[in-house]
Amino acid sequence: MEEGARPMREGHASRTAEQNALFRALESSRRADQRICDDPLARHFLRWPYTLVMCVAAIPGVATSVCWYIDRRWPGVRSSVVARTRLIDDLIAGALDDGIDQVVILGAGFDSRAYRISRLAAIDIFEVDHPDTQAAKREVLKRLLPSPPEHVRFVAIDFKQDDLASAMSGAGYDDSKHTLFLWEGVTNYLTADAVDSTVQWCSRASAGSQLLFTYVHRDVLTRPSDFVGTQNLFRSLEKARERFTFGMQPSHVPGFLASRGFSLELDIGAAEYRARYFGARARAMRGHEFYRVALARAGRRAA
Ligand SMILES: C[S@@+](CC[C@H](N)C(=O)[O-])C[C@H]1O[C@@H](n2cnc3c(N)ncnc32)[C@H](O)[C@@H]1O
After folding, report:
1. pTM for this entry
2. 136 alpha carbon to ligand 1 midpoint, in Å?
């Protein structure tokens, strides 16, 4: 099979999407004055064995040990996901202040922002994801929400095979609107071609639209042992059939985006965004430093 074309576990929701929901659920169960992010819906998306992890963490005094164990086995992953959830929540608030008309969440997984951020209920949201993950999410949403969310449209596609443009126009997406594209935790699982065509498609949106995405430093693919914690992480990703297949050198990102109609406004690594939200506690956090969050704006295509 072609490099990067190996599917996720067929018929199953993305395991890494569930893990992110677990990390958000654990953080959200902390006291309001201690937590970094708050996602009260996250725990509802969990299935065995993550439901068991939450049950154990609910025993008084045990949650800290559960997080300690996760951090020891997979250094930096949990804290990075928690801090980036908060960073992206804050950047979405900025985009809403900026007057965006619609949000496209690419590879949405168990992202619950469409349902937990009240200001998003007033605009159109498109949740785009692999059919297997999206089906699992919609099953849970059916039980969780009193009625189907009218502001959300679901688009089920495989970024590596399907045509995003026709799927989106079929779903009512309007590229003349001021759009925020959120692409969190996905590019590292795709092929270079799938990343390229998706960014090209996003760049057709009206000038001023924003692309908020994550990527991994290219070196973690070629020299994983240079980074703390990659041995266990890569073993788990292999088991989930969601191994890293795409990364970029941060110094190449401005040029990559400029040639596809975007200008880079922000590009920060996990160590930096952990420090922003965890403060002094971030000094003891190691691992996942290769993970990055970037924000770019459409409308300044290079000649
Ligand atoms: C790590 S999860 C991230 C989920 C969510 N955005 C978050 O940050 O929690 C990766 C997501 O990408 C989706 N995904 C991976 N490969 C895909 C593909 N080829 N086509 C469509 N979606 C894909 C998975 O279904 C999953 O929802």
Report:
1. 0.95
2. 13
